[in-house]
Amino acid sequence: MPGPLAAVVVRDQAAALTQALGQLPREQRDAFLLQIEGDLSVEEVATITQSSFETTKSRLRYARTKLRELLSEYA
Fold it and tell me: How far is Cα of residue 12 from the mean position of the Cα atoms in its chain?
């Protein structure tokens, strides 16, 4: 069972992720969350968002890059 310190760390990380996601443009955030939470392929995300495969791939790449920057202190 995790201790109180571990619980605080997890809560802080979750808050940081939520804040970082809020800083992404909507299209990037939506594509990222569909892929991660929905366990969807790029093709599936493209279909759902009615975007081309290449546009979806770019949105996902930009989202990951920005999230890495914003969350670098947690890496």
Answer: 16
pLDDT range class, residue 21, cuts 50, 70, 90: very high
Cα–Cα distance for residue pair 19/23, rounded to 1 Å: 7
Q: What is the pTM for the complete model shown?
A: 0.84
Distance CA 18, CA 75 (A): 16
Q: CA–CA distance from 28 to each of 7, 17, 45, 47 (Å)?
A: 29, 14, 11, 15
Q: CA 42, 22, 74: angle at the middle one, nearest 5?
A: 85
d(CA 55, CA 61): 10
